[in-house]
């Protein structure tokens, strides 16, 4: 493929370190609305080795706010986020999906980018030169299909950080500098986790240092004290990929959560299973039995999950909304995405029952222990352990159970676009499950749904070690090879230091990061004012835990106001309203697990204790902020959960300011008002004018902090050359579909 000579990007402030332009086209139009062209933007379409960028001096209509990304501008799309590159010539009636190193025999008049984050972006080349239009389309297709992991932009981004402006070698990114999130890449992180959970009969194992035993396991992990290193080395060859069973977490009763791959040697299966089970039993103070949960038999496989996402994307992005909500919900149900979310949550609840009620240890069995077990182990810990519902606890949980445990992010995200059969949105499914829990118990989580949405988007910004590799060993090998090929002297480092996604300063300012802070969060330690004195108290499990009797924010309040008949829902009143649903469940014979769940729901919830989700289909919702944020028809101006978030943030900020003033009155010293505004944990702050309640900003909408402006509006495409083209897409555009379509 012929491209223009590459040069270092100097186009705008969002250029990342190591980013270069590979091709560009002038006089390109970005389609903002298909109803009329008056809102369309004119500018330059640029392809770099990192992203597709549209440079314009115009501003978007109605676009008064956007969270500023330090690596991406408002019109930028990371190349890893590009799902399909579709070129169209509406004059000749031709279209083609472009891959890497493909030829384009016609001059495109239109370019459509289908993105993995559910965006559809459309450009037109009516005024652009035909050759420059063709070249920029080919460049985007080529660079969005890298042939090797080392061609992913993260390597250039990190490699440049090892060289100062004078050419002298300097240290790379310090993944631990200033971070409170444990990365579990050293034995001390595991030691702290053992002590935190009280797992006194478990120890850190170091036999895989240098990845000597298993290529996909971390160098450090936790095993029962009663299992000697020599035994583990002997048993390793019996497991798939030599993946020795991994300890995940300990319940306060002493029950352990363990994940394990299948035993590949049938002759040794019974002997090895008995030895492993015996060691886990010995680690329990009551010597309780071990329950094995076969995830492959009870949960959908990765291909089923991928098919469900493709159907969901078709419903949310391509197909027009039905006239009736019932038809749309029926289509949503047929995708099976919500069914799979419910299935994973239900299975996690079953595991919680074994740990919490039966007081037995649980082994999560999966053939290779790298996919389904990541989801279930995390959900179980989120339900049982309030530490995992804090921001740093949640990030450490993902680091431990996904990154270090060897989830194939490179393959499952399909960053190289080599094998569609290996692609599966398991991490997105997990985030959706977390959101369902968050949606039912928002005050139990330190973070917001904006945080969960941004975390999902970060998979497509390929500069972070978190989502770039299949396992720690792959990261080490590729980074060493890249450093050698680029003559980068690593010094004492054994490999390039990629930043983890948890270093949010790489992407957002401190102000924008406050969007992650949940004003409803009820943490372990909170402050209150009693008789004019600021006191600190700790939430404890108690029958009289008044602060935790709130299930969450009523639906009316989530839309910004309380109706005349609405009150803050108490747990027992909610049970009464759901009695008809529960009675239907009781018509069948109740199992011990169901009785455990019913008994739990009959008691007031402790936000710092066990949390169980409600699992009837009516209790689960579509994660609108993620799946529908780019759809203009789904946007609610001045509405949605953000309006309640705004009011609660202002209230929380005002309480913090008043407490600060009270400390000043008591002579304890305080922060001046202007400094309080700078250091507040809330994005929306109280005004400095006394007794003035700030009105919600005009830019607030249900899509905040994202904007659907500039994405394809489906109802408006009727009658355009694109309408017939899109009507042939059954699930997601395929080569076969396009080959049979004519304009």
UniProtKB/TrEMBL annotation:
Binding residue positions for substrate: 301-302
Pfam families: 3-PAP (PF12578), Myotub-related (PF06602)
Ranges where the Myotubularin phosphatase domain occurs: 184-627
One term under GO cellular component: membrane
Biological process (GO), any one: phosphatidylinositol dephosphorylation
Family the UniProt entry places it in: Belongs to the protein-tyrosine phosphatase family. Non-receptor class myotubularin subfamily.
PANTHER family: MYOTUBULARIN-RELATED, MYOTUBULARIN-RELATED PROTEIN 10
Protein's recorded name: Myotubularin-related protein 10
High-level lineage: Eukaryota, Metazoa, Chordata, Craniata, Vertebrata
């Amino acid at each position: 493929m012929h491209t223009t000579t590459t040069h270092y990007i100097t186009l705008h402030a969002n250029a990342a370190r190591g980013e270069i332009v590979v091709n560009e086209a002038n006089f390109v139009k970005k389609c903002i609305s298909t109803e009329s062209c008056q809102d369309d933007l004119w500018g330059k379409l640029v392809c770099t080795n990192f992203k597709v960028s549209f440079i314009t001096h115009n501003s978007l209509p109605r676009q008064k706010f956007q969270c500023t990304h330090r690596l991406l501008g408002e019109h930028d799309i990371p190349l890893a986020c590009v799902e399909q590159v579709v070129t169209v010539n509406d004059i000749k009636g031709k279209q083609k999906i472009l891959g890497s190193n493909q030829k384009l025999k016609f001059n495109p008049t239109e370019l459509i980018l289908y993105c993995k984050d559910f965006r559809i972006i459309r450009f037109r080349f009516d005024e652009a030169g035909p050759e420059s239009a063709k070249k920029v389309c080919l460049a985007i297709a080529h660079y969005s299909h890298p042939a090797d992991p080392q061609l992913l932009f993260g390597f250039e981004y990190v490699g440049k950080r090892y060289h100062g402006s004078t050419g002298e070698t300097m240290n790379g990114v310090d993944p631990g500098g200033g971070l409170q999130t444990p990365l579990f890449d050293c034995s001390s992180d595991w030691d702290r986790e053992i002590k935190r959970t009280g797992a006194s009969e478990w120890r850190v194992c170091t036999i895989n240092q240098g990845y000597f035993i298993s290529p996909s396991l971390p160098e450090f992990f936790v095993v029962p004290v009663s299992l000697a290193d020599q035994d583990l080395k002997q048993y390793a060859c019996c497991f798939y990929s030599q993946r020795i069973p991994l300890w995940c977490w300990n319940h306060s009763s002493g029950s352990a959560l363990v994940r394990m791959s299948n035993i590949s040697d049938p002759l040794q299966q019974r002997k090895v299973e008995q030895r492993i089970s015996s060691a886990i039993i010995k680690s329990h103070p009551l010597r309780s039995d071990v329950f094995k949960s076969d995830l492959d038999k009870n949960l959908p496989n990765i291909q089923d999950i991928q098919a469900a996402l493709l159907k969901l994307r078709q419903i949310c992005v391509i197909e027009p909304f039905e006239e009736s909500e019932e038809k749309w919900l029926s289509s949503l149900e047929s995708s099976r995405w919500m069914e799979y979310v419910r299935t994973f949550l239900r299975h996690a609840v079953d595991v919680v029952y074994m740990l919490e009620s039966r007081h037995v240890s649980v082994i999560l069995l999966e053939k290779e222990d790298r996919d389904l077990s990541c989801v279930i182990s995390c959900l179980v810990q989120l339900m049982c352990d309030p530490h995992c519902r804090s921001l740093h606890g949640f990030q450490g949980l993902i680091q431990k159970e996904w990154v270090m445990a060897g989830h194939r992010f490179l393959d499952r995200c399909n960053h190289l676009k080599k094998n569609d059969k290996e692609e599966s949105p398991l991490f997105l499914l997990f985030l959706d499950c977390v959101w369902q829990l968050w949606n039912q118990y928002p005050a139990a989580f330190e973070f917001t749904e904006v945080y969960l949405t941004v975390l999902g988007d970060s998979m497509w910004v390929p500069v972070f070690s978190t989502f770039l590799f299949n396992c720690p060993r792959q990261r080490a090998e590729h980074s060493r090879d890249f450093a050698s090929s680029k003559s980068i002297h690593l010094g004492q480092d054994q490999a390039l230091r990629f930043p983890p996604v948890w270093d949010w300063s790489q992407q957002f300012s401190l102000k924008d990061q406050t969007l992650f802070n949940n004003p409803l969060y009820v943490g372990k330690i909170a402050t209150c004012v009693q008789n004019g004195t600021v006191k600190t108290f700790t939430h404890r499990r108690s029958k009289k835990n008044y602060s935790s009797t709130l299930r969450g924010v009523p639906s009316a309040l989530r839309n910004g106001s309380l109706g005349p008949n609405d009150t803050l829902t108490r747990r027992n009143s909610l049970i009464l309203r759901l009695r008809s649903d529960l009675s239907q469940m009781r018509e069948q014979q109740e199992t011990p697990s169901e009785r455990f769940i019913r008994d739990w729901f009959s008691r007031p919830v402790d936000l710092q204790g066990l949390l169980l989700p409600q699992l009837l289909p009516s209790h689960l919702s579509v994660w609108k902020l993620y799946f529908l944020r780019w759809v203009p028809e789904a946007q609610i101006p001045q509405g949605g959960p953000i309006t309640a978030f705004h009011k609660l943030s202002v209230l929380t900020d005002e309480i913090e300011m008043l407490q600060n003033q009270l400390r000043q009155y008591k002579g304890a010293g305080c922060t001046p008002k202007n400094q309080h505004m700078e250091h507040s944990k809330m994005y929306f702050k109280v005004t400095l004018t006394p007794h003035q309640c700030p009105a919600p900003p005009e830019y607030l909408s249900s899509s905040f902090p994202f904007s659907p402006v500039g994405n394809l509006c489906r109802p408006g495409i009727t009658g355009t050359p694109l309408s017939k083209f899109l009507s042939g897409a059954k699930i997601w555009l395929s080569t076969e579909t396009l080959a049979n379509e004519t304009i």
